[in-house]
Amino acid sequence: MLEPNPVSLENVLDLPTCDIHAIAPEDLRELLDIVLPLDKAQVMAEFFAMMGDPSRLRILSVLSKQELCVHDIAAIVGMSESAVSHQLRILRTMRLVSYRKSKRKVYYQLLDHHVLEIYQAVSEHLDEKV
């Protein structure tokens, strides 16, 4: 894990400045107020690393349309039910999917609108023409 590096306005003002982009102290103060805290950056990095698995992304892609049982997810994404169950456990741990039981079946869905928005935003970004 990274060591925290507390940054203050005084520390930043003591650093050599860029000759091209002179930043006023009040602008530096504003940037220091909005910079992502190191502990949150670490958690977000772990989240994005977990999202870096193609199988999990494929599962999220089908769950973005509707809730499904493990059997149906496995058939759609071309994985074994055991492998899908394993990936769903990870997605549940990261609070990306939830489930409901109906008799002997378990149905999975995206946990909330944030998960759908993350999925859609990345998908749309990648579809954009450069």
TrEMBL record:
This is Winged helix-turn-helix transcriptional regulator. The keyword Endoplasmic reticulum does not apply. Keywords: DNA-binding, Transcription, Transcription regulation. SMART domains: HTH_ARSR. Residues 36-130 form the HTH arsR-type domain. GO terms for molecular function: DNA binding; DNA-binding transcription factor activity. The keyword DNA-binding applies. Coiled coil: none annotated.
